[in-house]
Specification:
The complex is a heterotrimer of chains A (442), B (286) and C (575).
Chain A: E1 14-20, H1 24-35, E2 40-44, H2 73-82, H3 94-110, E3 115-117, E4 123-126, E5 132-135, E6 137-139, H4 140-151, E7 155-160, H5 168-175, E8 182-187, H6 200-206, H7 210-224, E9 229-233, H8 241-252, E10 256-259, H9 266-278, E11 285-288, E12 292-297, E13 303-307, E14 314-323, E15 334-335, E16 340-341, E17 349-350, E18 375-376, E19 396-398, H10 408-411, H11 414-434
Parallel strand pairs in A: 1-2, 1-14, 2-11, 7-8, 7-9, 9-10, 14-19
Antiparallel strand pairs in A: 3-6, 4-5, 12-13, 13-14, 15-16, 17-18
Chain B: E1 2-5, H1 11-14, H2 16-28, E2 32-34, H3 50-66, E3 70-73, H4 76-91, H5 93-104, E4 116-118, H6 119-135, E5 144-147, H7 151-154, H8 157-160, H9 170-177, E6 181-182, H10 201-217, E7 222-225, H11 228-240, E8 253-255, H12 256-263, H13 268-271
Parallel strand pairs in B: 1-2, 1-3, 3-4, 5-6, 5-7, 7-8
Helix pairs in contact in B: 2-12, 3-4, 3-5, 4-5, 6-9
Chain C: H1 9-35, H2 47-63, H3 67-79, H4 82-87, H5 89-110, H6 116-119, H7 130-154, H8 164-189, H9 191-201, H10 209-220, H11 234-247, H12 261-268, H13 272-277, H14 280-298, H15 306-319, H16 327-340, H17 346-349, H18 354-360, H19 367-378, H20 385-397, H21 403-407, H22 414-427, H23 433-436, H24 442-451, H25 453-460, H26 473-476, H27 484-487, H28 490-493, H29 506-514, H30 518-522, H31 525-529, H32 535-539, H33 546-561
Helix pairs in contact in C: 1-14, 1-16, 2-16, 3-15, 5-7, 7-8, 8-12, 8-14, 10-11, 15-16, 19-22, 20-22
Classes of the chains: A alpha/beta (442), B alpha/beta (286), C mainly alpha (575).
Chain lengths: 442, 286, 575
Amino acid sequence: MALPKSHNYDPKHVFDIMVIGSGIAGMAASLFSVNRKLSTVQAGSVGGTLFASGLFDLMAIHPVEEKRVWADPWEAIAALRKQGSLHPYARISDDAIQSAFEEIASFLSSAGMAYRFEKNRNLPVITSMGTIKHTYCVPESMWHGVEAYNEKAPCLIIDFNGLREFSGRQISSTLREEWPGLRAVRISFPDTEGLNEVHPVHLAQALELSAVRESLAARIQPEIREARYAGFPAVLGIKKTAAICAHLEKLLGIPVFEIPMMPASVPGFRLKEIFDSVLPPKGLLRLIDKRVESVARLDNGNFILNIGGPDQEQFIQARGVILATGRFMGKGLLSDRKGIYEPLFHLPLHQPESRISWHHERFLDPSGHPINSAGVEVDDSFRAVDGTGKTIYDNLFIAGSILAHQDWMRMKCGSGLAIATAYAAVNAFINNFMNKSDRITA
Amino acid sequence: MKFAFFKGCKIPYYLEQYGSSTRAVLKTFGVRLLELDFCCCGYPNRDLHFESFVLSAARNMALAEKKNLDILTPCKCCYGSLKHAFHFLHENERLRRDINAELAKEGLVWKGKSTVKHLLTVLCDDIGLPAIYASIVKPLGGLSVAAHYGCHALRPSNIVHFDDPLAPSIFEDLISATGAKPVGWPRRLDCCGNPLWGKNNAISLALMRTKIADAYESGADCICTACTYCQLQFDAIQSSVKTDNAASPELPSILYTQLLGLSMGLPERLLGIKRNIIPVEKLKIV
Amino acid sequence: MERTLLGSTFLFTFLFVSLGICLAGIIFRIARWFAVDTGPEAGFIPVKKRVSAVLKGTAAALFSLKFLKIFKVLFFDLLLQSRILKTSLSRWIMHFSIFFGFMMLLLMHALDEIITKRLFPGYFPTLDPFQFLRNLFGVMVIVGVGIAVYRRLRYRGPMLITRYTDRYAVALLAVIIVSGFLEESSKMISESSFNRMMSGYFSACEPHDETALKAFWSREYGSVFPTMKFRITPELLARGKKLSEESCASCHADTRTAFISYPAAGFMKPFALSLSKSRAEVWLYYIHVLACFIGLAYLPFSKFFHLITDPLTLLVNGISDKKKVNPLTAMPRRAMELDACTECGTCSRYCSVAPVFRMLQNTEILPMHKLRTVKRLASGKDMDSAELQIISEGAFICTTCFKCTEVCPAGINLQDQWLASRELLSETGHPLPHVWLKKFNASEWSDRMRYFEASWKEADAGKERYYNLTDDSNVFAPCIQCQTCTNVCPVVAARTDPKDAVDITPHKIMNLLRLGLHDLALGSRMVWDCTTCYQCQENCPQGIKVTDIIYELKNRAYEHFKKIDRTAEINEDPC
């Protein structure tokens, strides 16, 4: 469908699917939908993916109470299943999760942000704090960091005057015992002398010009000495990171890698940029900065969604909905004195009995808090169910962190959960609804 | 098709060629333009006094409304300003009442009946790409063009409704129609720097030079604009601060209406090609 | 001497004195054009250079092939006054009536000895068509003046200001024309004038001839003979008519064609005796002629000076490119233009930022007032910084849209005046707000604001704002300080000299506002260096209207800070 530029689409058009939410789960669901030729519309605020670190976790820690770190994520998932956990992973096969990752990775790679992963192994990645994080899938630009860490090779960490969120010295001192060959150097980024503050995205944009890269390399060159790798804060460009890395490697003569920073960081901007700019040409209608105000259901089962905008109300009709609005941060769940609730469809939630049982007594309790596992419960097709396990709507699917029975932050499974459940939800929409429904869907 | 033609303040003195080329191009598509007794769109004064900005914009919209016409403007800043005022008047009843009371003194009223459109939207959506493709007699093959979007038409998208603010394509689609090749460049959606010209020239020029260097590195032969202020920045101001520095090459800037007009075979004189300060002759399209 | 010019040595002397004053005045004022400094180039171009540049320019224009252009200006702009017609028909009618009526009276009537007599050898002022035309032209002037007075009463306000010069000019014109008519009427009814003419040009053949002629004139031409008693018979009239045709008709047309003076004479009939006795026609003549001479002497110092400056301005600007200003000749031209302005108000009515004036009520926004201010600045008048602040506000609110220049009936290059005066204001410490607001940093402004607290409390009091983003804590509640606004900000990203760089980045402004530290946010450079590209607002994951908030801060900062004296020292408590 050709869409007029100014968002004045035909209000009578019935979309196959509407994705509500714009985080990784929402973006992944939109990608899977357009890849499967569904006419797709997505609503949500901008920048849902900004807070992504760029690393895609699958699963690293289970059980949370024991803080057990798994070298092989699939073993961790298998353990989950074996214990009869209600974690969403328990409803998806390993093959499906693997396919979901491959589909995302190949999309990002074609858009210029290649990813690396090893089949059965979590990868160790240095963070800006100097700690090691275990993750499944890393951007190509960080890959040499994994290698350097594994080899404990002589390595130079470069940081920049005024870049507050990153300290090379802290990294090298934290890792000194484990990795003596790590050395930090602080320099001024070209043309920022005298500024007491610089911002990662601006450095990344500046590096998109070759002259800036050359000037930067000239400043680093004398510091290289014995180093065989050069580690940078994650600021190596927004839109052409691969070319920038290659150019810097050529100029410096050694492999370079990026070290992820605290969100919102440049890799998050890269993901946002790719999802924002590549999905619409593939046929996605993005309703940016528009929230779904309310929902109604027609007699034929289609959802009518009232899309909020400052000057006009818009109504969109869709055969199915994928709800990927996240938990509290994404405003997928709200709370009041009585408890938490889901504001849009008013879905029944799995949640602690009362507010006092939301948290354990100790804030830093290693087992996390009951509220961190609250959310929407689903059937095997990722359709919301009520307390008795009955499917509520045959065309409402749930994906991402709004799902119950998972504590993604502590289990280190956030991106995997988002991607895999989005994948499962889209496929279920096609297989268990579009193709099976006796309703007229076309 | 008939529109009230909102030229804005800068075209008559600083950029006549934008007015004449817009008229020439639209005339061939049968679009009639009527100039009313418009005043400033309010944009420059939004910095200092909100109500003055709204009154200026409302007066213009009310004039068009009185003639039962929609507004067409070639300037993105005017576009953004009028759209913003529309939004504020639509949303804030007290503001609307007070502004209408002021307008009533000259027999005008704002009801929000008249739509504000940017030139590119009219070309792409009202006239339509097929008609534009059909009008091309001299395709500009071999020319690589960096489409400069211009901030005030694009953002904030929920108020200006121009195109997808993060992945717009309208300008590239229109450039493709002329036979030229739009290039992808990282800074295409960034600010040209003109809003700060005269206010903080150092930053204004830094913004402009970054964009030019980026367009150059991305393989563009020229920048293409569809906004009065952006064109002033990339043409008059770029040439006025010209340096011999090889690191900051000079890149010509052409108005979209000139580019389209050339590919439609319209006479150079109507398009005001010679009025561009950085000569576009070396692009070998004239 | 049989016939002194104008009939009296007194008047003759008066004329020459007036003429002398007039010429001296004109020379004085024109000389001033070369001496007055207007615009930023002032200090660099000595008077000598200005004079030679103007002479060269004039010569170049005369010897170039610009005849067509000159002719066009002369015919359309000057003679037909097409520039006025373009903007207002009623104003054109008014101005054209006065202009055409007055010029024709001047050429045909006042200078009849020099012009009319030579062109038309049989000329006598009392013959038609001259007698009729004189009345017609007089009526044109009166009608024009009438419309002018009406307009000035009807449209009183900032768009059309009536000053003493306007009143004097209108009054003088009225005196000249009315006294002229009255003089003509009084002559018609004057017995003594009739007798004087009769003794000079008539010799009676028969005893009743005199009576016959008088009878005929009193019946037909409105003469009044209060001392005479005669019975008018048809025979007497026929004789009178014959005599009149023989002796008078070669110089006197039917007085009825003086279609104003004739009926006026009718009204004066009852007072004919006393008027005649007091020689009214003589003193009316003196009033008429003296008023003309006073007008002549007053010309260079009055609104009438535009009779000289406007054609010159129209010619100069008509043949030169208004967009390419020659800095050498610019200053005398600007000074001449300042004299050419008649404050007709056309510019203000077409002003693009007139709606801003309606809101801010600063008359310095309106071009007509601005030009007057430019004149005051050029004359070196001392102004305090508060006054200059108001002037600067008006100067920089102007969008230099060129509209006023296009409509100015005098053809003044107003655009150039604005650009020049802006530069001058910038140089003298009153640049546009975005520049002077950065004179102090955030904490210095904050200090100043505290120092002048009374004034800013007052500014805030009783304000019912349409939007109040900056004071609303709900606006900032969702802010998670993720720095996205700062990260996408091109201004923060611009890697310039640190002295040009922004101080408080957008996310910090949001934080300051969240903490209620408004005064610090108001004075930050960031607010005034914002390009309003809306990247921050579009990309804020929490939907905070960052750019709109910055706009609001600008509005408030400007409102407060413009009242603060930027030159005053503030004595901070050393503790």
